[in-house]
Amino acid sequence: MRSSALIAAALGAATAMPAAAVTTIYVATLNGASEVIPNASPGTGTARVTVDSVLHTMRVESSFAGLAGGNTAAHIHCCTATPDTGAAGVATTTPTFTGFPSGTTSGTYDHTFDMDLASSWNGSFITAHGGTTAGAFAFFASGLDAGTTYFNIHTTAFPGGEIRGFLHAVPEPETYALMLVGLGLVGWTASRRRRV
C-alpha cells in the first residue's frame, strides 16, 4: 500500500513539472476531401508547422503532389468555430507564403517566419486581434492548440482551395516517456500485489 502511494506521488510530481520545450510542432495531411466543399482532387500533401513561443517564429514545411491545377496560393487560415471543420479567414501572409512555389502541381517548401513582423501576417488578422502582431500571435497559437487552424493550397482548378488539412500538435517525446513510465509503474505495482 505504501509503495502505491509513493508511485502516485512521483507521477503527480512528474506531471506537475513545467515543460522545458519552447517549440510546438503541428502537422496536417492535405487532401481534397478535407476542403469546405469536398472535391475529388488527386492532389495530396503534408504540412508541418513548428512554432517557437519564445522567439516568436514559425517554420512552415510542406510537400504536395498531383494537384489538378497550378497552385496560386498557400497559407494558414484561423480560426474556425469548431475543431476540424468549417472555414475561416487567412491568418498568415497573403496572397501566399513568401517564396511558395507558384504555378506548380507538385513541390516542397521550407521557410521560417518572424511572427513579430507584420509582413508575416494578413493585415486584417492583426487588426481583428488587438492591432498588434503580439495579439495576432497569441490568438493564432491558441487556435493551433485548439485544432481550429488549417493549411490550404489554392489552385487554378480549385480557386477556393484544392487541398487542405487541419493542423494538430504532435505530442512531445517527454509526454510519451512519462506515459511509458506510468504504465511501467502500474505493471510493477500489479505484480507486487500478486506476490503479496
TrEMBL record:
<feature type="domain" description="CHRD">
    <location>
        <begin position="24"/>
        <end position="169"/>
    </location>
</feature>
<dbReference type="InterPro" id="IPR010895">
    <property type="entry name" value="CHRD"/>
</dbReference>
<dbReference type="InterPro" id="IPR013424">
    <property type="entry name" value="Ice-binding_C"/>
</dbReference>
<keyword id="KW-0732">Signal</keyword>
<protein>
    <submittedName>
        <fullName>CHRD domain-containing protein</fullName>
    </submittedName>
</protein>
<dbReference type="Pfam" id="PF07452">
    <property type="entry name" value="CHRD"/>
</dbReference>
<dbReference type="Pfam" id="PF07589">
    <property type="entry name" value="PEP-CTERM"/>
</dbReference>
<feature type="signal peptide">
    <location>
        <begin position="1"/>
        <end position="21"/>
    </location>
</feature>
